[in-house]
């Protein structure tokens, strides 16, 4: 079976609690959350992701929160199908013609009802057609959201238009086809799924009615569609698990990023809470950087690495706004290489340095993301930092089950009293590594990073600063690995000893 990243859908369940009210900007829901699930007056509990809902200004204080669990669903690639019997009601949304985004792209694409099951109950926008929505307002809200996502990723960020066929080798002449979205009553274990039609080379989506206007579902699935139409990562086993990473990056970027602010404004969309799941990203930071293992993997949650590449707070060569697009465009066709191998060509900085600094910045979620760092203070007390065991005499070793795997890391907050000098020395490392002292001013939030050189570092840490030791498994030679079937070399954890004085884990 050709694998398109295991393109998983979502299944949403309602979780209702009876606790004291959470304060403004406090957490009010998520998997494993046992605190308040309603918000103080003047704020509403807004879903962000499976592990986090937040009290945000506005609305009633009586709302309950919705949380996500994920269920595996393999994306199908189907042949062209005939239109089904038309419903009795037909609605067509009037649209205003706008100028084309680039080149010869027309302002309005051509609809094709033979992509997917078809039907005559639909609403149109310039680039999309929504079939079977339960109301005109739901269809129009979904169309506005999708047009905003299209404007951001195709118009602003320059991704290949998903209106162009996967089969088309000359983009300038089209044809340009609307993307079909089917609002359906049910899906087996999923709230949304992307399909690809072989004959036309077009992606099409199915989304359960009640989730049609939720960007974490519909824009996520549209992210799969855009990814598919970029072409180079399709049917490459070693890019497989990264499909979910990309789709959640697309959804989160649409929801939060200033890169999409103009597009959101154009279509009446507001910025909403981040999708970040720190319980997984930080709590299981030792895992392979993108891990597709069943039940335990992180491939849905690993997207902050793509955000780090995009926001590029360290100014590394070749990274920045177009980093992910460049990973698509510079992928060696049909090479079955990993995206990290492509990253080595996109940036001259070196993958080990990039990954090492990414994890150092994740100590305080200082990756350039506009809102992810704001989530960290409310979640950090519940994150799993139990990475090291004391060996006595200020020496520590990683727990065997939490040794950093390929491009994973240990993030170890240190305790101190007042102003101190922190000394760290790593010895006996079984693999190549990158280690850093991450230091944050607790008043201003300013961060600084002290790299270990020759296995050691010393840093003066002021009384109003906090410090974290971070060590990442960063081999000089990249490994060709399939995240859905981890080989022994990527599961070989970094063992080491670290001596720490001036502070304790």
UniProtKB/TrEMBL annotation:
Segment forming the signal sequence: 1-20
Organism: Arthrobotrys musiformis
Positions with biased composition (Low complexity): 63-99
Keywords on record: Signal
SUPFAM superfamilies reported for this sequence: Cellulose-binding domain
Domain CBM1: 20-56
Cited SMART domains: fCBD
One GO CC term, this protein: extracellular region
Protein name as annotated: CBM1 domain-containing protein
């Amino acid at each position: 079976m050709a694998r398109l990243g295991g393109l998983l859908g979502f299944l949403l369940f309602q979780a209702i609690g009876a606790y004291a009210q959470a304060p403004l900007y406090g957490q009010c829901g998520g998997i494993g959350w046992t605190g308040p699930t309603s918000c103080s007056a003047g704020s509403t509990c807004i879903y962000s992701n499976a592990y986090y809902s937040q009290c945000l200004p506005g609305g009633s204080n009586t709302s309950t929160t919705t949380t996500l669990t994920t269920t595996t669903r393999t994306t199908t690639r189907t042949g062209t199908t005939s239109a089904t019997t038309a419903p009795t009601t037909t609605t067509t949304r009037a649209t205003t013609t706008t100028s084309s985004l680039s080149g010869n792209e027309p302002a309005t694409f051509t609809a094709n009802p033979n992509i997917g099951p078809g039907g005559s109950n639909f609403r149109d926008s310039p680039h999309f057609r929504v079939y079977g929505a339960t109301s005109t307002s739901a269809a129009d809200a979904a169309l506005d959201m999708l047009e905003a996502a299209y404007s951001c990723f195709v118009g602003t960020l320059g991704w290949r238009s998903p209106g162009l066929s996967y089969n088309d080798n000359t983009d300038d002449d089209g044809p340009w086809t609307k993307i079909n979205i089917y609002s359906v009553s049910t899906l087996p274990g999923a709230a949304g799924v992307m399909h690809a039609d072989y004959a036309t080379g077009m992606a099409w989506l199915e989304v359960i009615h009640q989730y049609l206007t939720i960007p974490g579902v519909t824009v996520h699935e549209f992210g799969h569609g855009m990814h598919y139409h970029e072409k180079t990562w399709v049917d490459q086993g070693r890019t497989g698990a990264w499909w979910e990473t990309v789709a959640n990056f697309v959804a989160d970027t649409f929801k939060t990023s200033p890169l999409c602010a103009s597009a959101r404004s154009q279509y009446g969309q507001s910025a909403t809470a981040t999708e970040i799941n720190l319980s997984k990203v930080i709590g299981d930071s030792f895992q392979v950087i993108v891990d597709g293992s069943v039940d335990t993997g992180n491939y849905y949650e690993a997207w902050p690495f793509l955000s780090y590449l995009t926001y590029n707070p360290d100014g590394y060569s070749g990274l920045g706004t177009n980093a992910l697009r460049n990973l698509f465009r510079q992928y060696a066709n049909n090479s079955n290489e990993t995206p990290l191998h492509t990253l080595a060509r996109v940036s001259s900085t070196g993958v080990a340095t990039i990954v090492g600094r990414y994890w150092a910045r994740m100590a305080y979620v200082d990756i350039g993301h506009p809102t992810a760092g704001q989530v960290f203070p409310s979640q950090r007390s519940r994150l799993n930092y139990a990475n090291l065991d004391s060996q006595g005499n200020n020496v520590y070793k990683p727990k065997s089950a939490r040794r950093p795997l390929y491009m994973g890391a240990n993030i170890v907050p240190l305790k101190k009293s007042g102003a101190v000098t922190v000394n760290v020395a790593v010895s006996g490392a079984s693999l190549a590594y990158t280690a850093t002292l991450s230091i944050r001013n607790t008043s201003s939030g300013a961060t600084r990073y002290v790299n270990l050189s020759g296995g050691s570092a010393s840093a003066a840490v002021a009384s109003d600063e906090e410090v974290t030791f971070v060590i990442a498994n960063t081999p000089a030679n990249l490994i060709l690995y399939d995240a859905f079937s981890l080989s022994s070399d990527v599961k070989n954890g970094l063992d080491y000893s670290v001596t720490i004085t001036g502070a304790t884990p």
